[in-house]
Design brief:
Helices cover about 50% and strands about 10% of the residues. The chain is an alpha+beta fold. It has 5 domains: about 100 residues, Zinc finger, CHC2-typedomain (DNA Primase, Chain A), CATH 3.90.580; about 120 residues, DNA primase DNAg catalytic core, N-terminal domain, CATH 3.90.980.10; about 130 residues, Dna Topoisomerase Vi A Subunit, Chain: A, domain 2; about 60 residues, no CATH class; about 150 residues, DNAb Helicase, Chain A (Orthogonal Bundle), CATH 1.10.860.
Amino acid sequence: MRDEDIALVRERARIEEVVGDHVALRKAGVGSLKGLCPFHDEKTPSFQVRPQVGLFHCFGCGEGGDVIAFVMKNDHLGFTDAVERLAARAGVELHYEDGATGSRPRPAAGQRQRLVEANAAAAAYYAEQLRSPDAQPGRALLSSRGFDASSAATFGVGFAPRSGEALYTALRGRGFTDDELVAAGLIARSGTGRMYDRFRGRLLWPIRDVTGDTVGFGARRLFDDDRIEAKYLNTPETVLYKKSQVLYGVDLAKREIARDRKIVVVEGYTDVMACHLAGVSTAVATCGTAFGDEHSRVVRRLLGDTDSHGEVIFTFDGDAAGRRAALKAFDSDQRFVARTFVAVEPSGKDPCDLRVSTGDEAVRALVDNRVPLFEFAIRSALTDHDLETEEGRLAALDAAAPIVAAIKDSALRHRYAVQLDRWTGFLDERFVVSRVARVAGAEGRTRREGGADGPGRQRVAVAPLDPVVAAERMALACALQYPELVAADVDALGEHAFGAPAHHAIHEAIKVSGGLTGRTSAQVVAAISEFVPSAVAPLVTELAVMDLPAGEAELARYTRGIVARVAEVEVTQLVIDLTRRLTRLDPASDAETYRKASADLHIAHLRQRALRDRASGA
């Protein structure tokens, strides 16, 4: 690829938009956005994006870089694949060394892009087949569930022909190889080497990731003579499709989830369709697996899960299986900062059935009448016990107490312990609360002693930065982020202005690359990247995106003040050196040298005072 094409991709693929497809970003100071890191699990957002520089950095795990680095890390791609994907998104035509051009990759393009294209072609083929005569049973099923042709088109629903090679023939005609089609999970290879369609005679839903790329399919059984008895069949695990990480409907729901700080997790594809058509546009579903830890991390990033204002709402059937699913979700609940709820329809209908029998309003009411997940989990533990007898109440308390004890928030735990007393009918609050406290204490000891949660870990205390080093760090951050405000001051700093080795290396790179004057933030970062040691490169990214403790109104005064503080340290050292020199001179024997040294010291004192005033904001 030509270097200028890669530079154009970096420029046009806006990092805040690319990252925003995966992470809910919110303003965090002047010119900065913040969200939950997609590369490690965290409760407090430490992932920062600075659009004007085109960089991201996580202050928790240390990952950082430009928009290409983000796609490489997030989507597990090589450099070429990441650039090609971003180029297709931004409409950049790439030119290759062999002279080939075009937004489509050349035949040797990375595997992921080819698999994305194969899935997209398959989705289009299946959607077209839904209109065929053979797909009548599929259309009838959709109609019985309340979905017309327009609804099917909105969600890309399709039909896989019963012929064993229909899709294979169509995609081979589009230039895809056998290996690509097998790797995409669309085609299977028999023991004798024969190629055949993985999905045959089934209704299909394309499963898309947050960017809108089709990564897999969910297929429902239609015909009694289908040799595969499973009602639903999903794409196997592939480079694109990881069932523990994908959520059906997330491509349609992501904007509303971030805007409303709410997500509704349902159990099936038709439930997602019913919710969206009924006006619950934040609905998603897992794909052939239970809601797990990886799903929790995806949901937290979509919500921007940093405070209790968000809501995660699970819908479950009202039967025993639904209660078990809710209790399993309870295990994941405290991974969310957002409040977590359960919506269960008393008659046991799922959102799709509810919409068919009662209408859109009933679906919206189901979500509106949600109950806290803690309450649902506790009450579910009581249902199998006779609360009319002392023995039954004690058994119910023993079943529910561990659930209450597992609540991490101590105030909330106490409130539910009080409620548990009322729900069991003991009417002895002190007895129930103490019982819960004993269970909580026992579990706490188990964790500390290395029980189920693993060995106890001590948080390592981090010493605060030396004030001088901290000032150097902030001054360099100002230089990288707002060179137009501090160019003259930074360019005037001496060779020994920065004492920390890494800071000194960055300052040297600024000088060697031509200084700050006349350059934008992005140009400065790009220029110095060629001169800093590889070990220091991550620090450049970190400084370029970190928050500055100043609002827009006081930004100019702060940036010049912090650079002045660094300059003051350098001048202070000069004052010390000149004072020592002066004490060694004899004014009687060398009056001229003494007079010049005195004058230099006086000028240094004046400079020191001026810098001190500027640093203090005077």
